[in-house]
């Protein structure tokens, strides 16, 4: 427990953090990567270059300071971060590295404003927060060992590759030791680790897009195309698309993540899924479980948004599910349809998801909503649902990359 004096000092630093948060976190990452290059493998350089990682950390630090006297308000955020940390293999010994560089950055960025009182208060506050993460992450590692039979990374083999769209490839990964896979929770992701040319490794999270209980983990990976020298092609997605072949080995860590399906207790309460682009991947696993485990009277609506047919993933798989289940309504909306997309019936409508479409498919029914996609799409859907009076507890969403505020 933090002392009242420490809580008071931390609260006083909130305005300074709001004004200087991103400057502080940029300095922090640069300092840490210089003094402790061994931790660079835990971070996505694309997120560093885009600044999303720095903004996310700045927001997290400010939120912690604002709620320092009510840590229960941060429970969901702590769980999201702890799951991400466990997926990457972050352990207790890494926290002193972060703490040392964070405190040094506060002193170096704020200068004389960073008094000993402030530094000591933040050292105490960081120690408490680190203990929370260490304890929760230890529990996650034990859960992974108990449920899946391994912790950390172990080799998997590529059973097959499958084209999912012009820019998305599916990889079916099976344990190299031949052990049967335990059922993952629909919506979870796994972590893959690949070698780099300099002899180091890097890691990425990919949602499991197949039904739990199958012989493999299927990940469906979008090729991240660059935008010139400043934004190069995605390192890991390029490796998977261009170099990983059937029979190859790849290191995989157990499923993790808090964005999972929780079926409503009411048998007739509708479920609505809204997928944007490659954000469909966790929702595919959820959809299949929802269809198999829901009573026949539960309406299930699946809205898929894509640019056009060339980049529409899982078209045949979704169509087959709609034919098989009478309670599933599938609606495909293209924002930039190609010639023939509408006429051929490849999409049901044009544009972005809007209230008119939701009125048509869902109406005023109280439903549970799951949505995933690019950040602008998440922000748009979140605003639509707020306008419709959907309670926060009925809204479930996931970011691909560092989380940020939607409201």
Polypeptide structure, described:
With 407 residues, the protein is an alpha/beta fold. It has three domains: 4-148, Orthogonal Bundle (Globin-like), CATH 1.10.490.10; 154-256, Beta Barrel (Elongation Factor Tu (Ef-tu), domain 3), CATH 2.40.30.10; 271-398, Nucleotide-binding domain of ferredoxin-NADP reductase (FNR) module (Rossmann fold, 3-Layer(aba) Sandwich), CATH 3.40.50. It has twelve helices and twelve strands. The strands form two sheets. A six-stranded antiparallel beta sheet has the order 4-3-6-1-2-5. The mean pLDDT is 94. It comes from Marinobacter halodurans. It catalyses: 2 nitric oxide + NADPH + 2 O2 = 2 nitrate + NADP(+) + H(+); 2 nitric oxide + NADH + 2 O2 = 2 nitrate + NAD(+) + H(+). Residues 151-262 form the FAD-binding FR-type domain. Its EC number is 1.14.12.17.
